[in-house]
């Protein structure tokens, strides 16, 4: 499957945000994949091509892709590019909840370590 012509569409990372550009891209891909707008098998643009479209450095896109791959959202298949992986529905919902939690924690000024600490306490029932 080829990437939909509209990806990334009109979406651009917000340079004024405190959220790093690679993280904004990572969250956008997760959002689109979980919402079905990037179905499994969809090929994402090459790193350099997407970096040019988004007006960001190639390493920004490469880092987002690397983190998405580590999370199982995408798979890099050499010359065949980076494609969206099939995701278990439970994890898709969990990913959305995690994104919401991260956004709420950032909005309230919590550091990453503080947010993780709160999540760990909630996970352990404390």
UniProtKB/TrEMBL annotation:
GO MF terms, alphabetically ordered: DNA binding; DNA-binding transcription factor activity
Q: Which keywords label this protein?
A: DNA-binding, Transcription, Transcription regulation
Identify the domain of life: Bacteria
Q: HTH gntR-type domain spans which residues?
A: 19-87
Q: What Pfam family is a match for this entry? A: GntR
InterPro entries from the UniProt entry: Tscrpt_reg_HTH_GntR, WH-like_DNA-bd_sf, WH_DNA-bd_sf
Task: Give the lineage.
Answer: Bacteria, Bacillati, Actinomycetota, Actinomycetes, Micrococcales
Annotated PROSITE patterns: HTH_GNTR (PS50949)
Name the gene that codes for it.
Answer: gntR
- Full protein name: Bacterial regulatory s, gntR family protein
This protein's species is: Pseudarthrobacter siccitolerans
């Amino acid at each position: 499957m080829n990437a939909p012509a509209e990806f990334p569409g009109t979406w651009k990372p917000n340079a004024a945000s405190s959220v790093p550009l690679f993280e904004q891209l990572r969250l956008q891909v997760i959002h689109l994949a979980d919402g079905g707008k990037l179905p499994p098998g969809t090929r994402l643009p090459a790193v350099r091509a997407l970096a040019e479209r988004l007006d960001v450095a190639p390493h920004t896109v490469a880092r987002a892709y690397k983190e998405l791959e580590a999370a199982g959202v995408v798979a890099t298949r050499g010359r065949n590019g980076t494609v969206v992986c099939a995701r278990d529905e439970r994890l898709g919902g969990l990913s959305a909840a995690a994104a919401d939690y991260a956004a709420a924690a950032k909005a309230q000024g919590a550091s990453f370590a503080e947010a993780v600490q709160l999540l760990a306490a909630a996970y352990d029932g404390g």
